[in-house]
Amino acid sequence: MALDATSPASPRGSMLNPDTFSFPTIDETVAGAWVENVVRGDPALEPAFIAAARRLVERGAVAISSTCGFSIRHQPAIAASVTVPVLTSSLLLLPTLLRQVSHSTKIAVLTYDSTHCGQELLGVDDPAERARVVIGGIEGGKYWHDELKRPPPPTDVNAVERDVSACVARLRAEHPEIALILFECAAFPIVASPIRRVAQLPVYDITSLCRMTMASMA
Q1: What is the mean pLDDT of residues 189-204?
Q2: CA distance 147 to 174
Q3: 168: left (phi over 0), alpha (psi -120 to 50) or beta
Q4: What pLDDT, in 10s, does the model give residues 118-167?
Q5: Calpha distance 171→174 (Å, rounded)
Q6: How many domains is the chain partitioned into structurally?
Q7: CA separation (Å) from 67 to 103, 107, 173?
Q8: Which tens digits make up the pLDDT trace of 43-96?
Q9: Same domain as 106, residue 58
Q10: Residue 4 and residue 30 in contact, taking contact as beta carbons nearer than 8 Å
Q11: Parent domain of 75
Q12: Would you tell me how many other CB atoms lie within 10 Å of the CB of residue 2?
């Protein structure tokens, strides 16, 4: 499911670039879903997400994902409306990832806008486990501003890498016990490889979840 505000250029690693995956993909636009109203959690968008998901199933989709991790707010409703797996956000991985690393470590969640990525989106009920999650965003950066434009300009991969790298460096300086990075933003996979090389840490994102899900299919 793609937002209305979709960049005309989809670099490799993007959810909308067919070369990102080894399996075929199709997309449907969520009518009226722009970055600003999806990020802030407009409940009026839920019917449009459901309609897009149903159109994908009608076209043969065997699993459904989204180009914005903040659409996790609509995960229950979308999942209840179709008969295929629904993966609206990489945040669905967080409870599992917390169990992969030592309790003395933390996980960094990198998001497009940390002011709207509250703990209610994490899917982690235990306060002690929630305390192991540190959230950092790129709000105010070039990519953040670009995505708010209508229509957005072509994705500036270098700007995304600069903004994400700066966020990672800031979080690690504040929390040296970070052992793993989770990209909430579905645009960040385009820079996952360089971030892994520099950070020398595991980096998970929405494409990780999509690949795992598709690998489970017959």
Answers
A1: 97
A2: 28
A3: alpha
A4: 999 999 999 999 999 999 999 999 988 888 887 788 889 999 999 999 99
A5: 5
A6: 2
A7: 31, 22, 30
A8: 999 999 999 999 999 999 999 999 999 999 999 999 999 999 999 999 999 999
A9: no
A10: yes
A11: 2-89+210-215
A12: 18
pTM beyond 0.70: yes
Question: What is the model's pLDDT at position 10?
Answer: 82
Q: Are residues 77 and 100 in the same domain?
A: no
Distance (Å, whole) CA 20 – CA 146? 22
Residues 118, 74 within the same domain: no
Q: Over 70: is that where the pLDDT of 13 sits?
A: yes
Question: What CATH number does residue 75 fall under?
Answer: 3.40.50
123 and 195 part of one domain: yes
Provide CB contacts within 8 A for 145, sequence distance 6+. Answer: none
Same domain, 147 and 157: yes
Counting other chains too, the contacts that 210-213 makes at CB distance below 8 Å and 24 or more residues apart are: 210/15, 210/21, 210/63, 210/65, 210/87, 211/21, 211/22, 213/63, 213/85, 213/87
C-alpha 120/C-alpha 112 separation (Å) is 16
- Burial degree of 47 (CB within 10 A; 0-12, 13-18, 19+): middle
